[in-house]
Amino acid sequence: TPIVLEEEQKRTDGYLSSSDLDYLLGKRGTAETDLRPSGIAKIDDIRFDVISDGNYITKGCLLEIIRVEGSKLVVREINKTS
């Protein structure tokens, strides 16, 4: 007997597939937690799991999404003057 998911995970309900994350490339946000190297960032008032480009980033720093690798969002710290 096949297993069938009875509920749909719709975009309108807040579900995104990994391919839908490409729109975030270049967006900026704030580190909600320390990234060592992974953590949480807030971008466009939405919290995302992110990973830094290898550097430790402290909570509150400004970030930019520099790569989308499948479902991973890779960020780097940016200066306030950038």
Furnish the topology, listing elements before pairings.
Layout: E1 28-31, E2 38-43, E3 46-52, E4 62-69, E5 72-77
Parallel strand pairs: 3-5
Antiparallel strand pairs: 1-2, 1-4, 2-3, 4-5
Question: What are its keywords?
Answer:
5 strands, 5-stranded mixed beta barrel, single chain, mainly beta, 82 residues
Task: Tell me about this structure.
This protein has 82 residues and is mainly beta. Helix content is 0%, strand content 38%. β2 (38-43) and β3 form a beta hairpin. The model has no long low-confidence stretch (mean pLDDT 86). It is elongated, with a radius of gyration of 15 Å. It is built from no helices and five strands.
Into which percent range does the helicity of residues fall? under 10%
**Uncertain residue segments:** none
Total number of helical segments? 0
Query: What integer value in Å does the Rg equal?
Result: 15 Å
**Mean pLDDT, rounded to whole units?**
86
- The order of strands across the largest sheet is 1-2-3-5-4
How is the main sheet built? Answer: 5 strands, mixed, barrel
Quote the distance from N terminus to C terminus: 57 Å
Secondary-structure element pattern, one letter each: EEEEE
Portion of residues in beta strands equals 35-45%
Shape: elongated
Task: Give the structural class.
Answer: mainly beta
For the secondary structure, the number of strands is: 5
